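Hey,

The postdoc asked me to send both predictions to you directly instead of through the lab channel. I've kept everything plain text so nothing gets mangled by the mail client. Protein one:
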Amino acid sequence: MSKQIAFTVFLLIASGVFGYTVNRLISFFRITKRDFKIDNIGERTKTTLLVAFGQTKILRKPVIGLLHALVWWGFIVITIGTAEMAIDGVAGTERILQFLGPLYTLIVASGDIFAAIIIIACVAFLVRRHIMKVKRFEGVEMTHKSHWDATIALLMILLLMVSLMGMNMGYMQSVENYVGAFPVSAMFLGMISGMSPESVHLFHETNWWTHIVMVFVFLNVLPYSKHFHVIMSVPNVFLTDLKPYTKMHNMPAVTKEVELMMNPDTAFAAPPEGEEAAPPSRFGVKDIEDITWKNYVDSLTCTQCGRCTEVCPANITGKLLSPRKIMVDVRRRMKDKGPHFAKDNNYTDGKSLVGDYISKEELLACTSCNACVQECPVNIDHVSIIMDARRYLVMEESSAPNEWNMMFTNIENNGAPWQFSPEDRMNWAEGIQLKVNG
């Protein structure tokens, strides 16, 4: 009974703290705009099955991708066992799901095998980060804290898996006719075969408590870590923007004005009474209150893996732009301003996302090629924020390169980016046998 009480207290505390943290993050969504719409559920479900559960984009790097995919699939299987432990902890039972019979044996055997695979994978990840020093783990946004964030999370996962296998070993040694199969843990059973029954019981209980306490700690570390993608990746993939990569979203306020101007009946007419549109508060994105809720979900989902920056042509050629940094900066800015702005819409700290966190030079370096979006394993859309921030610079600050301003002027005057009269558009075809339609 004392074990049940202690476990229930731990469960309530951990759940309460996690609930408070998540509720705080959710409150920041009220700051953002609701411009992103969810449609085409069938296509979204297909994308989620392929990208999130099938790990198709992760597997583009076959070796390390397979290791990561195995960790993810193992996480799903082991979560079933963790849920069973939670039920056992509250109810005072032992292996309550054993009534599932052969299916239960398959689940626990798979969990045991995956635990060993995850241990190997975590060691490989640590070696890549601290010994091989893979280049894409570096960058101005990858601070000392970012590296320790990843290291601590990997060490916690290692401890979770070792304690799980230790718990399995203790269970096999202490129960004569145990339920399930533990093929990997059984290989190490000789390590405790000489222990007394009391010592085996202590060994089992120590590993059980270590595992469950680490689950609670890890759960509450996640929202403050890049490893929050463990929770956010599946929803974010489901929320993928299904438009073609190179298609930009139009600004509704601007689109409406253009449509009115293109219609001879409404171009110079006053709007009907009661239908006067309120002017937009801002064109584009200057700060976090201008981003969409999907942009914020993207920032919470970012794994900081660096695959986006690794393929960015601007970054490769020495420009300041790093798509990963854009996501890190959005999350960092929301962390800095969000708690205050959620309470007071007039709050200002004299800073803004564009200018103080993301520089103009970074924004102008983007080629809009969407290589970062294509490569991202969790389908983050970096370019949408960059484009909206550019719109702010051009439409609000009149801050654009001279070449852009010349192009804008030519489009306005000539209907094309080039500086010649529309009447001269077909001059190049004079003197050649070319059939021109229209």
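Protein two:
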Amino acid sequence: MTLAEKIIRLRKEQGWSQEELAHRLEVSRQAVSKWESMASVPDLDKILKLSQLFGVSTDYLLKDDAAEETGFAADDETPDRGRTVTMEEANAYLAQAAQSARRIALGVGLCILSPVPLIFLGALSEYGKAPIPEHAAGSVGVTILLLFIACAVALFVTEGFKLHRYEYLEKEPIALTYGVAGMVEAKKEQFAPVFKSAVVTGVTLCILSLVPLLLSAMGENEFLTACCAALLFLFAAAGVFLIVLRGIVWGSYARLLEEGDYTPENKAAEKRNEPFHAFYWCAVTALYLGLSFYSNAWHRTWIVWPVAAVLFAGLQALRNARKE
């Protein structure tokens, strides 16, 4: 392990952010970021402070081949952390994640946009804006909707196969080889402003998507209201596209660094919870189909899915709270 990787590991073991470590060392966060990305090396005074803060020897920090320590005593029997990820594997995964992100985001956007032609053609026919019979408008609209969905599913399946070889990053503990953690930290630090900007822009577009529809509802032009409903999907698709595009790349860094949802503890918990997740969604599907066939109210029973999603998130939060 390099000095950069040791600083990252020891900092995370203490549960400190880069800002917290910088405050304790009386340096800037940028300085800590440069140490962890191997852009610079802390001076001797800071190395002494690091050894005191983390409870390790300076030899451990400075020697790349030093054994891992707990306190000042070296531990010669370091447990196997899991599957080893080399620099080549990490770079290949990051490149594939960036490539797949564009196509998956496009697929999500197509799913959101799929009702737009149906809404617009239906409005043209219903309000006499174009000489299109109502049944023809519906047929063409549904056909385009299904084409959009089919293209999206093809993109999801194709990219899913490409990313399947890296599935172990989500489910198994991993051990990064020399220099990988520093490289990923540097790329993550560089990408952070792009990710934050995409999330802010995406959320803003999703919120603003409601504005035209609300304004049009104040008038009596029903055709304009229908067009604004279609515009809502356009804004939402653009916002979600940005969030998914950058979010997948951001998630690839978290997987390699085992942060957030991908810590060894969370991976183990997720593996234990897999049977519950499978049972829950099978039960929800059975409930949805049962209610729909019994009532024949397919236009209303879709509400089962958002309710189930919120309930699922609540159950997850409750399980996590009980563990803590």
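Summary for protein two, as requested: The longest strand covers residues 83-85.

Thanks,
C.
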